[in-house]
Hints:
- There is one protein chain.
- By secondary structure, this protein is of the alpha/beta class.
- The protein folds into two domains: about 5-55 and about 375-415, Urease, subunit C, domain 1 (Roll); about 60-365, Metal-dependent hydrolases (TIM Barrel, Alpha-Beta Barrel).
- It contains eleven helices and 16 strands.
- It has helices spanning about 80-85, 90-105, 120-130, 175-190, 220-230, 240-250, 265-275, 280-285, 295-315, 340-345, 350-365; strands spanning about 5-15, 15-25, 30-35, 45-50, 55, 60-65, 105-110, 140, 195-200, 235-240, 255-260, 275-280, 320, 380-385, 405, 410-415.
- Strands 1, 2, 3, 4, 5, 14, 15 and 16 form an eight-stranded mixed β-sheet that branches. Strands 9-10-11-12-13 form a five-stranded parallel β-sheet, with helices on both faces. It has a three-stranded parallel β-sheet with strand order 6-7-8.
- Strand 9 (about 195-200), helix 5 and strand 10 form a beta-alpha-beta unit.
- Helix 2 packs across helix 3 (about 120-130), helix 5 (about 220-230) crosses helix 6 (about 240-250) and helix 8 runs antiparallel to helix 9 (about 295-315).
- It starts with a strand and ends with a strand.
Amino acid sequence: MSSILIKHVNIVDSLEGVRKNKNVLIEGGRIKAIFGNSETLPQADEVLDLAGKYLMPGLIDMHVHMTAEAGIDKSGMSGGLWRLCTPSPLKAMHFLHNARKAMMSGFTTLRNCGHTTYYTPEDVAVRDAIRKELVEGPNIVACAGYITMTAGHGDLSTNKNIRRLPEYNIGDRCFDGVWGCVEGVREKVRHGADFIKVMASGGMGSSGDEPEWPNYTVEELSAIVREAHALDKKTAAHTHSTEASRRCIEAGIDTIEHGCGLNDEMCARMAENGQFLIPTMRVVNQLLESNDREEREKAEKMAKIHDGALYAAMRNGVKIGYGTDTINALKHGENGLEILSLQQYGMNSKEIFDAITFVSAQALGREEKIGLVREGMNADLIAVDVDPLEQIEHLAYGDNIKIVIVNGKLMKNTQ
């Protein structure tokens, strides 16, 4: 593999802050060496002089839905209908297009949280194509589709009047009861999942349920966690209600997604357990302006309890990762705008920087590989003109990201 030498750059990460005027050698997709200017510079296939710029870990979005319509001549269909009518190979192309837009905005790792085709999940296919260097793109963390119960949020994302035929790519297969949930985990792992995503409450993008409805019992959620952990997979749960979040915390879910309704007592327990919150603040505010009346009314209810959950997590020391819930309400490639929302809710530049890099890497269980700038770690890096620990809002806009390197490959250079 080719090598890259980055010269005269300021290195920034969560543990060491800013290291001024360093040089970084990348070989074999990893950071081989970091050294000062007094040392002899090695030869490399490509040399980037980034004098005055700031080199930092690539950004991580822990909650995206990349299987969404992209390109020109849009069909005009709703997201759910489009996914129902579009063949999986074509959906994979849309997925890759969306993932690359996020990558060019500085996001080198994307955790896909559902909306994939049953049996032939697009996130697994695109992940594997990137790993095999058939196409270029960011690192994809795939769930191979979510686990949902009958009449749960994932199930009702398909119109209730349509007969579910998952074998023919119509709707999702539902998993009910303890042993059904165990089977669901095993099936997702067989299909190539990196982690297990479960719908633990109703939602805003489904019709016929309410977001505050809990969607699985503690026993079912505990079975999902036990089986996933036995297979070395982490778990993530969509939850929009206090009761659903309580059940997920008790069951030991690794990351609580959205987390509406969390309170101080629950957050204190999350912090003690080492569980993470992925708050996705911007999407709720976006859905308040939805053209769909039911969706808008649900968002109005959730907005009242979404803000308090983040504040409770901050007060009680919960580890907060970074997620956007990008799909239709938010545009792919604008993943960084969540930064501005987190600022509005009182998180400072250092806290947001940590969330979007090292804390999210910890939540993925990949902190030994990504999230810091260290010798031996994956060369997933970006460079910008200003110190993000002072001006984190600079990272909100993709045009401000001058350099993007993924697995040691230069994907963007607009310096």
